[in-house]
# Entry
Amino acid sequence: MKRERIMLLLTLLLLIMLPVPARADTGPKPSIEIVCANLKGSEVYLDLLIDDDLPSMGFMFGRMDSSFDPEGYYDKTMLDLLRGYNKDGWRPALATGTSNPLWAELRCKVMADGSAISKFNYFGVPNSFKVIIVSQDGSVAVSNRIDRKAFDSVVEVDFANKHLDDDGYWELTAIEKTPLKQTFKQFLSTLAATYLIEGVVLLLFGFGFKENWKPFVFVNLATQVALYIVILFVAGNSGSIPAMFVYLLFEIVILFVEMAAYSRLLDSNKSKGIKRLYAICANLASFFAGWMIMGMSAI
# Structure
């Protein structure tokens, strides 16, 4: 029975650590989801405006393929309108290039009710941006500036609320949804995944759940709350990339905290060494699973 548990544990760890496709590579990456309402036509070109300097060599059109020919894929008129926008130093990120990779699809399908959703992700996601929308009728609409507050930001744009500016562009109002709501939903999903994965490892190590559910539940809850508070603080003050490095470092801190807590609080006849080993295996399992889930969610 002991050998079977060890084999099951090793199988679990191997499955979690299997590689995923390159475009869905592992790791938490910032994202921006643009949710549009009351659009006209069947398709729009939606991009983010950034005020960075134009890179000499960069990533364009959400692709790594430098041989990609935009002329054969995009409508020339709509693409030229998008590329031609440069007001007060703001330029379209996908259409003119970014220093860091930014994955998204410029062409955005409009549903029958006028709604559309476009998602931007990876390390090229800007901290400050505007939304630009080019419609099939040749109109160009630009939103107000958004200073991103959430790691995974959701921005709503209503095309019905627009007015024409002096330069002939439609002005839109973009609103970032409350980051606390998004973060709380992400926290709940991460906590549930942690309980599921580490609970399986707990049983595989032979710990009775009835005797150990309290330390298991409350230690994980405390460490996850601390992790999210730290990540929110760093992301809000320093941006997404520093937050990712802090995330990695804090996971190491959590490992040692849980090793110390479980060695004292788990109720069984097993040695402290086995309890510490459980903490290591459980954290590795949940860490790699969470790392992959956040990476996959950015597709």
In short: The beta strands are 31-37, 43-50, 91-92, 107-109, 116-121, 128-134, 140-143, 146-147, 152-164, 170-176.
